[in-house]
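cron nightly-structures :: item 1 of 1
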Amino acid sequence: AHDLIQEQVYEGIPVKERRQLHCDIGIFLGSETSLDISCEHEPIDAAIDRIFLSDVVDNEDSYIDASSLLSIATSQINNAGPEFFSDRAQLTRFASWNLR
């Protein structure tokens, strides 16, 4: 039931707004990691330590692993779609994320 509610809420968000949300999430996660080779970032482990996730099932604290975080950031950018980005440099930047 929860999944259906979540899906209905998601589908109720206009497409352009959804793409913007995916973009913002992907850029945030990418900026918290070493996805951008050209920029200086803190090590991935330090970034992950700051992105805290709570496990609702057993109320124990847990952290997301590096490969999952990188995958989520890339997936979010991909969900925004290439037509959402007009800057060629930005497209190249995000394309390089998919190569990692």
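cron nightly-structures :: done
Residues 38-42, 53-60 have pLDDT under 50 and may be disordered.
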